[in-house]
Amino acid sequence: MRDDKSTQEITAADTDNELVYWLTTCLNRYTAETNSSRSYTSYTQGRNTMGNKSSLLLREEEIAQIQEETGFTPNQIERLYSRFTALDKNDCGTLSREDFLRIPELAINPLSERIVSAFFAESHDDRVNFLQFMRVLAHFRPIRKNRENKLNSREDKLRFAFSMYDLDNDGKISRDELLAILHMMVGVNISEEQLSSIAERTIIEADTNNDQMISFEEFAHALERTDVEQKMSIRFLN
Amino acid sequence: MNRRSFHMAPKLSKIFPESCLLIFVGVLIGALLLSTHSVHVQPLTPDTFFLYMLPPIILDAGYFMPNRLFFDHLGTILLFAVVGTVFNTLTIGLSLWACGQTGMFAFQTPLLDMLLFGALISAVDPVAVLAVFEEIHVDEILYIVVFGESLLNDAVTVVLYHMFEAYTEMGPSKLVYTDFLAGFGSFIVVAFGGTCIGVIWGFATGLVTRFTHEVRVIEPIFIFVMAYLAYLNAEMFHMSGILAITFCGITMKNYVEANISHKSHTTIKYTMKMLSSSSETIIFMFLGVATVNNNHVWNTWFVLLTIVFCSVFRIIGVYILSAVANKFRLHKLKTVEKFVMSYGGLRGAVAFALVLLIDPKVVKLQPMFVTTTIAVIYFTVFIQGITIKPLVKILNVKTVEKRKPTMNERIHERFMDHLMAGIEDILGKHGNHHIRDKFKRFDNRFIRPFLLRNYQGAEPKILETYSKLAMRDAIEYMQRNASTIGNISGAESMSAIFKNYTNANLNGSPSFSQLDSSTWNIDMQELEYNPSKKDLTDARIHHLLAEELCKPYRRHRRLSYSRHAVNDKDLGMQVNYKTHMNIRRLVGDRKHHHKRSKRGKQDGKNHVSFPEFQQNGSAKQFTHDYIDEVLQEDDEVPRRENDDGGITFTAKSPPGYKEISPTSSHKENSSSLLNQLANLPGFNPLKARIVKQYAKTPEEILPTAVEKSLPWRRDRSTYNFVPNEDILEEDERRMSDDNDTYMTVAEQARVATPTATETMLPWKRDDIEGSGALKQSEFPAWASNKEYLAYSSPSATFLGGIEKPKHPKSIIGLFRRESSGSTQGGGEVIMSDSEGKADSLMGESSSKGESSTGPKLGPSLLSKRSTSLGGPTVLLMEDVAHSDPLGASSRPASIMQGPHRGQCRRGSMLELTGSLSRSAITEEKCSKSLPESERMGVRRLALGQQSLPRDTFSRQHTLTSNLTSSSSDDSSDENT
């Protein structure tokens, strides 16, 4: 780009009839331009460095590791990492619950608590590092045929959703757990009885072994006609 | 009619889409008209088409548009609708112009004319697409993309059309570049203007329907009129009417559906479908008719090239655009889908109407355009329409079957929506989910509360699905059980009742009826089952009686005609009327019999008062008519008593009576002695009465199943006592007395512990305290039957009063407490005959009430067991010589005062509360574990009795009372 501009300048100068004078001026301008562009480049580099301060921390092997583990492309990883650092207000390389809930739209999402908790499922200290962050997001990668699908197969997606219901991690959705979700989604305008009867109806509908709980198999069965692959996928930008 | 006939010819309609057949018929009609020269009308004028034919179809499409799907794919749809249409217009127009330059058409082809033609021919037609795609059931995404495109490209088509028309009129020489800019600008205005008008009208409709709940009838009218107004409104401002009415439908649906009644919804649905399919039919037929005329200008090359260009550029356009769209789509359009999309680009009536609009004076080629347009339409509708179905099958395009979402799908999908919206937020990406989520929030917060009458929380769809499913469940349940109920009521219980009853009356002696009795069944399960059904049936009948019979029959005819009011109940009333009449007849019979039986007996009380019915239904009664015989049967009785450890009591039933084994387990044993005692006398009489009035009494009495089936009954403990009566007459007499006592007892129990029924059914609460013993005495015995008690009957007089037997011979009743909850429940009552008396170890049982009722109460063994079981057991024995036990018991004075009082008392209750038992529950459990063998023994005994039916007459009453609190037990003990 710089070269183009300079050539343009030169040609512009050439078209000028007053050769020498203009040539010198051109040269002057050229150097000036070059300098300024150089300074611009360095400026952008500086900005890049600053903005991607952590991206510098994200070394090749880390990217490779994340790519290996989650299946994201390096571009996606970089992009998500910049988002990650943008969320990371404390610049400590990890996210806390507050960091998540600072997102205004997420804060008013009825399921925000569960969604955020899903990110913390693997962490023990209530912080989420980038790798964990990416692992969770990997569930939402669209399924590509002819490519290996890590963490984002239909079953993985279903498991992820299921685990968000299953608060106590016993592998079953109990009536209370379902009711809690309904509470969050439906809100307050509905009477308790109605909600609980809805929950019961839902469980009965899915419950095949009559244990009044929804196991993962029953959950998957109930949704077998749903396009989960589609519904639980996001197009990650490159 | 045509439509129908096509469907009647299955083979035809399998091969051809409906539209083809309609056009074919239209052609036939047109040929007929032409040959007769009778009519020279142009049936399908653009005005008719755009003003009357098109709006219903588009409204139907918009109103039943799957919103979610539509907006999910809106980007793709718009891409195809706008860019695709423009692309097709330009390429077709330019290609035709280029071909025209070669001179192959043998006439001049001005560029603008060609572009004008390209504009009208390039638009995919919603009517044709709907007609074909509705029959092939392709994947919903594919459907929505093609169909959405056909709807939304209207704006483009109309704009392009008018633009080129205007250019043509101006002439190419005067065109300046600003005109093209104006054209582009006008597209924006037309499209967005139409959309906005539609949305505004949609909201307005929602608002209007919010206030129509008083006049449901006009709800559908608003939907149609306001949608049509949106259309006209848009056309008025030269906006896209199709867009307006589409978006009006899309918008209004969300709010209107929540406001209007279910019936209005149905009306709208069917009216809309009817209107749109009529329009569609007419359009295609008129298309056929319009084909046949003498004004055709056929240019083979032009027609052929147009068809080729239409197909080719459609395919090219689709492939290019879907490649673009796939870059942004999560769900990539696959090759097969692309093919179907391009192949499904049918042209139709819109193009035809537009081409008719062209002014032949300005565009010289208009007649040829008309002909060519018709040819293209025929090609797409016939060739493509017919082949697309097999092609879809061959290419294995995903097809869908329609179905309602299940509860799980609803909830979990909604859950996923929220989840994805949250993830998008975390990613800082503003995708579909994000936008939808935002809109939903806005909608729920501001729009819905404003437009909806009953704003129901944030997830109306979940509720809707739930209520739909619940409704379906209920209907299925009714259908499953209807037969059972019907059979029972019709065949078994009613007929049996009457037969038995008649027999009893004719013979005047119980023995006869006994002979008839074919069933002596002690099997608990069986007993429970049968009685329950009968009970339910009877209860139902009683309910009907209470509802209908007792009131003067009203004709449900509307006094005045009202256009704005529909009497929704008409149908139901007719049905009721029918049942009503039947029941009336039945009741009449019953009454008749009853009176007969009563005659010759002194009757103190003919009066039945309503409050009585409100008495607890918890008590179940088992009656035997013959007391004397029972007394004689001492031998058998003791055996039974021995068996009492077993769950069931055995009662001999007079013929026609089925034994009832109360498989009651007491949930709570802690019942007060007082209550029990009081209950005992009352129950006996009831039974007696029941027996009298309904020969089938036992069946009715067996309430346990009922209790089980009816949750509100469960709380109570049930006492069964089996009284023996010697003679029906005596029974009747006694019954009156017993009734009184019974009622009072029941009342007491009730007061002590409000029954579940009461809590559940508010209307029962009225007279709990108010109904004194006197009132209760007035009730006919059968009225006090528990099953009937479940309903309050307003009827004032069911039965006349009943005389009391002066000297009841002997009644041995065992009250057993039943716990309705479990069949094998702890305490069990066994009928005991005189033996029971002999054995009576009342003292042993340590029941306090015994002393008072002492001599009569006697099933010792049973009592012991029962006591050991911990369940409060009450044995009621009726002695022939017995005086009223009520007096002994601390019955309220009012009861005592009852006219029949002194004599009535044949039965006495023994309470075997044993240790009274707070530990009752545990003991009950123990009782459950009682060996089957005992029960079997009981049964055997019973069978033995059956062989000697006459010998044994036992009455069994089961009284259920709720003894919920241990405190009540204590108090009762103190009282006793």
TrEMBL record, chain A:
The subcellular localization recorded is: Cell membrane; Cytoplasm; Nucleus
Kindly report the protein's main subcellular placement as a broad class: membrane
UniProtKB keywords? Calcium, Cell membrane, Cytoplasm, Lipoprotein, Membrane, Metal-binding, Myristate, Nucleus, Phosphoprotein, Protein transport, Repeat, Transport
Give the EF-hand domain ranges. 75-110, 153-188, 194-229
The Gene Ontology biological process terms listed for this entry are: protein transport
Report the domain of life of the source organism.
Eukaryota
> Which SMART domains does the annotation name?
EFh
PANTHER family from the xrefs? EG:114D9.1 PROTEIN-RELATED
Q: What protein name does the entry list?
A: EF-hand domain-containing protein
Classification from the root reads: Eukaryota, Metazoa, Ecdysozoa, Arthropoda, Hexapoda
Automatic annotation (TrEMBL), chain B:
GO cellular component terms attached to this protein's record: plasma membrane
Q: Which family does it belong to?
A: Belongs to the monovalent cation:proton antiporter 1 (CPA1) transporter (TC 2.A.36) family.
Region of interest called Disordered, as start-end residue ranges on this chain? 588-615, 634-672, 815-905, 919-938, 944-976
* Annotated GO MF terms: potassium:proton antiporter activity; sodium:proton antiporter activity
Q: Where is the composition biased (Low complexity)?
A: 843-852
Q: Which residues cross the membrane?
A: 48-65, 77-98, 110-133, 140-164, 184-203, 215-231, 237-256, 301-324, 336-357, 369-388
Q: Which organism is it from?
A: Leptosia nina
Q: What is the protein's given name?
A: Sodium/hydrogen exchanger
Q: Where is the signal peptide?
A: none
**Keyword Manganese attributed:** no
Q: Which residues form the Cation/H+ exchanger transmembrane domain?
A: 10-393
